[in-house]
Amino acid sequence: MRKKIKILSIILFAVIVLFCGKKEVQARSYSIENMDIQATIQQDGSVKVKQQLTYKFNGSFNGIYMNIPYSLEDNAFKDVEKTNKINDDFYNGSEVIINKVSLLNNGNEIKFTEIEYATNGMNSVYTNSKKTNRYELKVYCPSEDITKTFEIDYKIKNLCVKHNDIGELYYNFIGGEWETKIKNLNIDIYIPENKSEIKIWGHGPYNGNCKIISNSHANFQVKNIKPGQYVAARVLFDNSNIAKSQKLSRINAKEMIYKDENAIIENKEEKNAFTWKIIIFAACLLIYWIILMVIFEKDKKYPVSDINEEELFEKYNPMIAGCIQGSRTILARDIIAVILNLINKKIIHLNIEPYIGKDKYLYRVGKNETAENQMDSIEKYVYDWIFEKEDQVLLSDRLKKMPKEKEANKKFKELNKLVENNLAQKGANQAKVPLSIRVFNVFLFILSIAVIVKHIMFNGFEIYYTQTSSFILIHILIFMVTLMPLIIGALYIPINLIIIARHKINKTVQRITGQKVVTTTISLIVLFTVIIILTAIISPEKYMIADEILICIATILILTDNLMLKNNKAMIKDYSRLNALKDKIKDYTLMEDRDIEQVTLWEQYLSYAVSFGIANKIAERIKGLNIDDDLESLFNSTIFTDFIASDYSTFYTYASLDRRFVESYKNTTDKMMGEIGSGGFSGGFSSGRRRWILRRRRLFWRWRKRPEEAEPFKIR
Fold first, then answer.
1. Whole-structure pTM over 0.70, yes or no?
2. I need a surface site. Which of 82, 651, 697, 713 has the fewest CB within 10 A?
């Protein structure tokens, strides 16, 4: 199965590369790779701006939109009370004058002409319209799969404020209307005649970096600006540099501005500190959870000096022994083991009939009603399940039909419940986490939720939804519908990979600690990992990753504390003894301990070897041993070798929770594929493509996963 999954993964990757490499299926998109702004403050308080924008186009476009804000909308003060009582509207510019729009092409400059009205397809022209709080340029320059750099020269009139004690530029260089990501933003602000010290603050993304180059030059750089985010800069300088400015505040503003900016910095630091507290809290919960695992689940190991297999056979039937040895719930192979053991105990009669076929024999089993009182409840359940209301059944047919019965899953659960009750009576899973601690864990979960809510409210939460993002989303949906058959089939791969990974993680942890990682834990970690990755990719609110980590750990804590169970001393010793017995059977050291002719219990060893998952290790070695010929024939028959070697995968497919989910998923997708193939969706495939898809689908779902062997020691 793993080999098949690898092959499927390679095929899937190749198909994705093939499709993604074609222009026809690429989503039309664009981004701003670099934006460079050179702003020079003038004596009259206006600001001259030279702005270069490097666009990367994927697909075909008629041109670009560019917003030039002239009003101030700064969210930096949403969490801070301003000392400076000047209204934000006072910082607005009065007018934007466009001097030049051009395209820079390999050192050459192509100037664009302003016109009142233009249509798509036109080139080297632009229109300019005034909106509520910005000027909007529409630059017509047809582009397809290319990178281009545009340059706009403009002047924002009456922008700087002249205070009694200081001059100030406070401006949104990037307004919130930008609909695409800006990868690199560089802003240089020049005050040509300034001789005294200047001061600069940047508002917007936390990754911005402000620096003072000289008394006449300040710089602000920001990377990876999300759509809808703003970037504002605030610069203080000697007011003599805007001596002709008509925008007079008539107040001493320097100290108030310093207080406001310090308050913003402190608020930012408080937010960062709060986020770190969330991370520390999550780490403490994780350590607390590990401590609970060690205290309430980790079993003390006891050395094994004597196996005494006859005592173990008397105490545990093969199904119970396999669950203890593998620290697991029942598997389909345990039913086979019980059948073998009942045949060996003569509770089930085995009759072999000649047959012209692959196996050469038919194996018919019948009831021995006189010996039915010799069975325990588990053996009786398997016994009744095999025969139902019949006295004799053909074993091969019965084993094939059992998993497909309407009540198969219900019976499998009931059988597993019998095993759990039997194990509990023998001392398995006795110690549990006290109720007081579990109540405390619920309190921690509620506390975590409260802390997260407070953290979100303190930081603020915004979702930036833009026309560009919706445009990309539509193309993703179109892509998914177009490749629906491939996507439906491809999901089978990660589902199986998760199942395999869960077993592998459990085995690795068991080798290190002797404990079992509950399936719930792995599932939650996988789920929250996906959520965290999506948050990191699409959300501007990166602090939420800390919240997601905390809620993940808090959820794992309350969902798994009732699953932390310990075994009594006798059960732990038997666990060690059964594992030692498994090793002896597997390594054939039993033959070294005594003569082959003295090994009179090999019939029992066979059934336990099946439950231990090592039947294939000894299948070829039993020939010539002192065991029943009919039992040896059955053990080496195709019916048993096929089912045992594959852990009876057919039954496991129906009975395992993982497998039942995959089977349900398969059935659902089969119906969807049928709808697609029969024209259930408009614009369906051609008949030839439909036959190809249906044929591949049948081959795809024919593969099955082989369940893993014993998991770590805890009954779940």
1. no
2. 82
